[in-house]
Amino acid sequence: MINMPHLENLRPRQDYALQDETFGSAALRPQFASSSNPNASLDGFLNAVDRRIDNLVYYAPGQPGFDSHKLPEADFEEVVMKFKGQIMSNLTQRMTDGEYGKAPFRLPSAVELYDAYVLDGVRGLDALLLRYFRQFFLAYGHPLLKEVNTEAATQASDLRNPGEWYPAARALRRKLIMHVGPTNSGKTYQALQRLEKASSGWYGGPLRLLAHEVFNRMNSKGITCNLRTGEEVRILDINARITASTIEMFAEGNTYDVAVIDEIQMIASPQRGYAWTTALLGLRASEIHLCGEEAAVPLITSIAKELGEEIEVNRYERLSPLTTESEAIKSYNRVKPGDCVVAFSRKSIFAIKENIERDTGMRCALVYGALPPESRTMQADLFNDPNNEYDVIVASDAVGMGLNLYLPRRPKFADEEISSASYLRRWKNSTLVN
What we know:
The protein has about 425 residues and is an alpha/beta fold. It has 3 domains: about 5-145, no CATH class; about 160-315, P-loop containing nucleotide triphosphate hydrolases (Rossmann fold, 3-Layer(aba) Sandwich); about 330-434, Rossmann fold, CATH 3.40.50.300. It is about 35% helix and about 15% strand. The strands form 5 sheets. It has an 8-stranded mixed β-sheet with strand order 6-5-7-4-8-9-3-10, sandwiched between helices. A 3-stranded parallel β-sheet has the order 11-13-12, with helices on both faces. It has a two-stranded antiparallel sheet with strand order 1-2. Helix 1 packs antiparallel against helix 2 (about 75-95) and helix 1 runs parallel beside helix 3. It is elongated. The two termini are about 70 Å apart. Residues about 1-35 and about 410-434 have low confidence and may be disordered.
């Protein structure tokens, strides 16, 4: 690479020539030292670059890669002038900041241009400029680009208002109905009651288990319902009134009378929140029920205001009190029929099951996240059925979402650790855990 020892002492003029600020106006211009081209002055270099780019108008069309272009001469010259303007602008900026090796994509840097000029004069410049102009022409020289309405293209690519991404949904008069409250408050139940009466509807939840529960619930009541999750699709009737799915399976193209989005607070999730956002903004439904926590109300209210849509917020209280007992259950032999033991690893779940069955003689149902939805539901049904021998359920925290467990004892949470990986918890007072 050729050294350019004097560039840091120079500043650009408007005509792309450089003025020497170090030596004053009366001083001789510094010369670039080059054994192959000792007369390569900075002014000569810039003028040569300027002229050789202009020459592309006549030289480039006959070169490989340009001989088949369909641009009129005036349009081809316009592309060349655009190429020239960006190169000279970059050279001016680089002379100011001293970063001679820096250049935008598809443009040669000051170092590349100067090296080519010093080593091989205008022939070197022609070869370098032609090589970069081929890349530039691919991006800016297509004849269809002349037909692009820049203003319309800019508006179409403006993604700052996500609500406008779904014009079909914006064309509807939608109403958002929020059902917020703690677990076991009946919020999802109320939304599903409305879904059952709809002429057409869609349910979207965070878990396959929840989608399966709605699917089974609707079909057991004689309401034809299809199922769509990431792992399976069950089409019982192509004209089914209801579709139950995981939230990521939302399909924008369908129109519904009523839609239910479960666990709406997960719209704030960094990993999965996009799916709730997409469904909320894009659902084509006259009535959208949103079930979740109170914390989601400010955000959803703000979104509704931005969309110009009506919003109604229904708040619910827990149907039965949730309290902790003052004394921890310190031994598994004190576990009684109807208890639920919650652990936080699959290894602990199987160890606790073994200990309870050995110490009490009772059989334990098991629920954890890796079980298929059907198996989890089956295990919960075994526990809920009073006519079988499964008196205790041992579960991971997956028990807290999507399962209905009928527990005869008042809730009791141990405040003392039983093992390094689990705590023993008692649920009481006919509590419905969902």
